[in-house]
Amino acid sequence: MAVAIKKTFGSYLETVDSGPVKKLRLQTFVADAKTSKGGKTAIADRKLQALSQLDAYMGNAPPATGLALRPGAQPPPPVAATSACSNAPAPSATSNVAVTNSRELLDILVKITDEISYQDVDLSELKEAAAKIMQLYQLQERDSDTSIRVKLLELLSGLGCEGATEQAVTLIIDHFIYLLRRESSQKVLAQGMMCLYRIGQRRKSMVPTAYNTQVAHLAKEQLRSGSTHTQKNAMLVIGRFATKMEGERHYVWKLAFYIDSQDSGVRAQALHALLSLGERGSQLPAVLYKRAVEAMKDDYECVRKEALRLVFMLGNRHPDYIIPSDRQQEDLRMIDAAFSKVCEALCDLSLQIRVLAAELLGGMTAVSREFLHQTLDKKLMSNLRRKRTAHERGARLVTSGEWSSGKRWADDAPQEHLDARSISIIASGACGALIHGLEDEFLEVRTAAVTSMCKLALSRPDFAVTSLDFLVDMFNDEIEDVRLKAIYSLTAIARHIVLREDQLEIMLSSLEDYSVDVREGLHLMLGACRVSTQTCLLMVVQKLLDVLAKYPQDRHSTYACMRKIGQKHPHLVMAVAVHLLYVHPFFETPERDVEDPAYLCVLILVFNAAEHLVPIISLLPTATHRHYAYLRDSMPHLVPQLPIEGASSASATHRIDLAMRQAGSSAEYLQMILSHIEEIFMMTDERVELLKTAQFNLQRLGAIDADMYGTSNFLETFLAAQIQIEQMQRCASTQRSRIPLKESLAALIRNCLKLQHTFSGLNYGDILQVKQLRLRASALHLVLVVRDRSQSALGPCQMLLQTASDIGEFINANSKDEEELSLGVPIPLTEGEKLETEASKRDALPDCFTLQLLSKLDAISDPKPGRVFREILPLVQQAPPLALPPANENIRRCVANILEPCPLQSQDNVIKVTAGLIAAVPFVAEIDNLLESQKADMRIKIKYPDQHIHTVVPKRSDFKPIMTEQGEHETNVRLRTTILLSHSVWTEASLVEIQLCLAVRPGSELELCKPAKVLFAPKPVRRGI
Predict the structure, then answer these.
(1) Closest CA to 563 of 638, 643, 641, 640
(2) Rounded to whole angstroms, how far apart are CA atoms 442 and 478?
(3) How far apart are CA 559 and CA 597, in angstroms?
(4) Quick one: 860 and 998 in the same domain?
(5) Is 12 helix (H, G, I), strand (E, B) or coil?
(6) Where is this region: Disordered (predicted)?
(7) Which of these, 933, 823, 856, lies nearest to 15 by C-alpha position?
(8) Which of 482, 524, 692, 801, CA to CA, is 20 to 30 A from 348?
(9) CA separation (Å) from 567 to 497, 562, 966?
């Protein structure tokens, strides 16, 4: 069944169950419908039915009522358990029975914990379940097995974590406060603190301020406990529940006291709680810095890690706080001292701490320039000894009065033994820290160091120039991920640097890397960087052409690299254009092949440079002008518009630009089309032909303006489905009309699925209109199939019931959200998302056809196809047209472009293989606007000439984000894999079609691109001579 899921940020997503259609599904729907009519109690009983197993252990105790305490109210007295034991047998028999009952009860509690479901529980049921758990908790003896009370608290916390309202959450917190204040077992207290922490994590927005204060005060009392486990969990609760003001006044110093605890776990948890308070907005005092620095010398890794985080936070919170220093002449800023301490942690013995220190360095952008540059200099300090100049050494020798042999200058001068404490630890800590990180033996540290260096270089252009040589050296790292990280980091800081010839030699040597990701990353980096001289430019171009000859599959990224290089170096390209094109000053050279990839690279380079420096055009030979016209038509995204005479595309492009300016913006033209469609819907005659004309206009608009492609294609598909429904509606209105073919019905359902699954960025109104359209299509499908009487109607009837259930749940979820919003329940959305969502919900309401159809289907007790057909036939025949949703510019469509196998070269290269064996074909495709949830539905469909179809499921690791100069693209990915072709013997080579599609349900694949065709020739097995 299709289920509408509402995410926290207000977007909607629909998934369709791909189970086979069976007759039993109709009976299941009837049972669900009856259950829904019975009310919410049946659902809640089924959710918490597992708790009924505890009734046998309740004894004769009076029933407990649900607590509804408020801060300051007196809790009820505990339930007396003496009545349940008034007729107890002898003490020995009683103990044996108690042990047996305890074991049985513990087993049942463990079973209930695994089976129970807390979702969608009504408030009354939650109160009853909480009262039952609390009553059973109070019946347990204080000296009995604590495991039972621990499991009961875990069940109680499950109710609190899934509470949907503030009243439910506060009720559970009241129970916890009441029980924990009377508990003496440290094991139970520790579990209670952990349960409160989980509730605070899951329902932090529903806990009132008064309850935050009360829970934090309860946890503060538990800090005096003798159990370190209880203390650690209490600190967790304080970090989660303490308010900003109380944290600054009371809890910061209380937690700081436990930094010196004897237990390492308590010390680490105290530091972690301070970090939690700081992250939640509390102002941590700067004087805690000294305590955090001392904790960085702890013997335990967990303490040093939290202390390192605290030093980082304090340095960024109080950057200009002056720290007095006894070891230097001047005082230091706290951000400089903290930066040095983090650098010092890069030499820690623990791998995790070195990785953390390398990651934190990138966030300390306010550090002073001299400290920042000191991280790249390893020669300032050597074994904590300051390097003295020759003048200083000579002056010291003269003042010492010692004799010298004269063989060497200052050979017998006494070595200066310096105490490590007399040298500035700050200077030694920051000295060469990033170099140590780049040279670490573990790739995690090297990767984190490269990332931090990139972040610091982005904020400091002078540091970017200094760090360039070190990033270039990382291109030779043995690990591919480290090389890629260095390449992408250098790409990000490319706007601050200019490459020299010696640096280019190292970079260009990496272009022959076996990894295609490294080569494409280098193409992206070279396109983003600038070179200094003509020699450097020729080196880059020649190396790119040599590598292209070795790896022809890199032509797409090489073309893009040449385009960027030409745009960034027009003057240098002008100086070398004659050399690159082989133009002779006296003789006419032969015309080169325009299909040659090397020649194409040079043309793309020159044409893009000519866009910024027009005199380059005068240096080009006449044949190049004809080649420009061809490339402008075949590669418009790589070749810009140039004022070249004789180019056929110039006049055509000028006419298109002039027409676009006269028509106005694309958004205005789209609104004009939508207004015309509304007028067409008012007409009665010739409506279909006019709608088809509007559909063609929407299709052309998406082809002209790439920014409006998603919106126009969505409206065009919606209108196409509307036209199909209207044409089929005429067949259903009269008895003598011809029933449409199965292909027409399948095309209508396919359009509905395409609207649901290939478009993203839809708001509430768009999703509602799509669901209503699919409901109409399903109802019309059932009517036509029943009227046809040549095929079974069980499948269409089941589809209609599923679609009706889906849209009913969607509308009910919207009404529930509106009720929660009216009651003041907070929803985590930004202001813009709130306004957009409220506007779309206010304007989008279900139409009368949808409401009437849902009410009729809900009234049917036995939904058989014939009964459903008779009920919905009048509605389907008289259904008015469904209005198009308003234009939404945020809509994007998932589309794909197959790069390999190349459509141009596949016709010339025949894949030959012995029949029955396997041929491996590389497959590369770029997919735009692909959501993370759609990766699991992606399929590669292989269609053989004999109409046999094979479907391949690509691995999740084959999807990698497309890198840009700004970083990873959010929704555009590249799929790189290998597909296997195999078949029996053919007489001659035939075309095999390879296509990307989304498998939304069995038998319904939505194509995302045109198929790529390859010639495949399985040959017979050769026999021996």
Answers:
(1) 638
(2) 11
(3) 9
(4) no
(5) strand
(6) 73-93
(7) 933
(8) 482
(9) 17, 9, 17
Structure tokens that stand for 781 in this block? 């499908």
CATH number for the domain including 377?
1.25.10.10
**Count of C-beta atoms within a 10 Å radius of residue 251:** 25
Q: Where is 520: in which H helix or E strand?
A: helix 516-528
CATH number for the domain harbouring residue 966: 2.60.40
In sequence order, which ranges of 120-263 are alpha helices (DSSP H)? 123-139, 146-161, 166-180, 186-202, 209-222, 228-241, 244-246, 252-257
* Domain termination site, one of 625, 649, 681: 625
DSSP 8-state assignment for residue 664: -
Distance separating alpha carbons of residues 557 and 226, to the nearest angstrom? 65
717-738 confidence digits (pLDDT tens): 888 888 888 888 777 666 555 5
Dihedral pair phi/psi, residue 824, rounded to 5°? 90, 15
Beta bridge partners of 1006: 998
Q: Based on the fold, state whether residues 534 and 570 are members of the same structural domain.
A: yes
797 and 921 share one domain: no
For residue 966, give the 3-state DSSP assignment: coil
CA distance 891 to 756: 12
Distances (CA, A) of 776 to 227, 393, 746, 749, 887: 65, 94, 14, 10, 22
Question: The tokens of 318 are what?
Answer: 């109080």
Residue 593 in any domain: the answer is: yes
Residues 490 and 532 grouped into a single domain: no
Question: pLDDT per residue over 928-954, tens digit each?
Answer: 988 888 888 899 999 998 888 899 999
Q: How far, in Å, CA of 952 to CA of 997, rounded? A: 10
Whether residues 858 and 754 share a domain: the answer is yes
Domain that holds residue 737: 717-817+844-878
Beta bridge partners of 979: 921
Domain boundary (827, 852, 878) is at 878
Cis preceding-peptide flag for 826 (omega within 30 of 0): no
Contacts of 520 (CB under 8 A, 6+ apart): 554, 557, 963
Which long-range contacts link 590-595 to residues 24+ away (Cβ below 8 Å)?
Answer: 591/623, 592/623, 594/627, 594/630, 594/631
Q: Are residues 588 and 615 in the same domain?
A: yes
Tell me: do 952 and 856 sit in the same domain: no
Both tokens of 683, joined, read 């007409």
333 SS3 class: strand
284 found inside a domain: no
Q: Are strands 919-928 and 895-900 parallel, antiparallel or unpaired?
A: antiparallel
CA 666 to chain centre: 31
pLDDT tens, 623-678?
888 889 888 888 888 998 888 876 554 455 555 555 555 555 777 888 888 888 88
CA distance 657 to 290: 67
342-390 residue pLDDT tens = 999 998 899 999 999 999 999 999 998 888 888 887 654 443 344 455 5
Domain assignment of residue 52, yes or no: no
Q: Residues of 308-329 as b/e, b for ≥16 C-beta within 10 angstroms?
A: bbbbbbbbbbbbebebeeeeee
* Residue with token string 């053989």: 944
Other beta carbons within 10 Å of 440: 20
Predicted local confidence at residue 199, as pLDDT:
87
Write out the two tokens for 559: 């073309």
Let me know whether 518 and 474 are in one domain. no
Contact 891, 715 (CB under 8 A): no
- The DSSP annotation for 693-760 comes to HHHHHHHHHHHH-GGGHHHHHHHHHHHHHHHHHHHHHHHHHSSSSPPPPHHHHHHHHHHHHHHHHSEE
The total number of structural domains that make up the chain: 4
Residue 371, both tokens: 């400290």
pLDDT in tens, 451-497: 999 999 999 889 999 898 899 999 888 999 999 999 999 999 998 88
